[in-house]
Amino acid sequence: MPAAAAPPASLPDLFAAFNRLTVLIVGDVMLDAYVWGKAVRLSPEAPVPIVNVSRQEQRLGGAANVALNVQALGATPLLCAVVGEDQGGDQLLELLRTTGLSAEGIVRSGHRPTTVKQRVLAHGQQLLRIDSEVETDLNADENAQLTARFEQLLGRADVVIFEDYDKGVLQEANIQHFISLARQRGVPTVVDPKKKNFLAYRHCTLFKPNLKELREGLKQEFGDTDADRPHFEAAVARLRQLLQPDMVLVTLSERGVFVENGQLRRTYIPAHVRTISDVSGAGDTVISIAALCVALGLPAASTAALANLGGGLVCEQVGVVPIEKQLLLQEAERVGLLEPHPLAPSPQERGTSF
Questions:
Q1: What is the pTM of this model?
Q2: Residues with active-site annotation
Q3: Domains in the chain, please, with CATH?
Q4: Most exposed: 49, 65, 99, 209, by fewest CB within 10 Å?
């Protein structure tokens, strides 16, 4: 059921309130597989290195990594997705079990494989990535099963995250059906889009593209300098006209984030100065934090400021890792996220640079 309208009054209260939330995450789950080894010679069969394997690991990826972030923040994630009746699907379900994530919303299909991205690494470098996947839309039976799981789980949700990787689980018809059901129940909807369904998320609560996705989704070209700001803001205005979301949050990579809700002034929040180790998974952290803030009724600028902070923190870690809740709270208090108004960005957090 939807959360109470009044947002928490302090950061500790906010982070405690995360524990009471349930988040329904619908979209593309995947298995991230890693093979580590040593490459000491070239193959006699082709000019490629031979890798002697020393270690292998499977991790949850895609929408399942968003679920890990939601879980790390203290909320309860419910995944709704489709995987294959294959080894990858078996491994993914086992990872859900070992990490304490529910699989009740997972549909298994004999007609499509589980998305698996296998990376081969040696001496600290990625040599090769092998993707096993399809990008075709779900068939009628798969979509019916997914819809049934979504409808069953929606009654327990405080917010819905659409995690779209263009793998075919989400398509315009089911997207609009899911958003309509959520709106009828007063459950906010938060979207992490990709190119194919970019303009399908009409009337969502929060729409969070990155700069590249905004360009591709609207088929508009603009740069990322201060001189390009009018073109960027015109693109956001066009996006609002087409989708009519309550809030637009655009991640700008090392330049921070932009947020507007159609009422407040446009707000640019610069990134914090950090030692960046790996940007992988930062978007999953941003959407997870933003969804919880939306569920609790936080203002747009406060939502963006906290999500921006969390996205930067995970970039200091190597590999795709979920956010550390206590570290995020400590950092939010350190930068004065409460000043001068409760749960609003401080003067240092407000920015004008694009």
A1: 0.90
A2: 284
A3: 11-33+60-334 (3.40.1190.20)
A4: 99
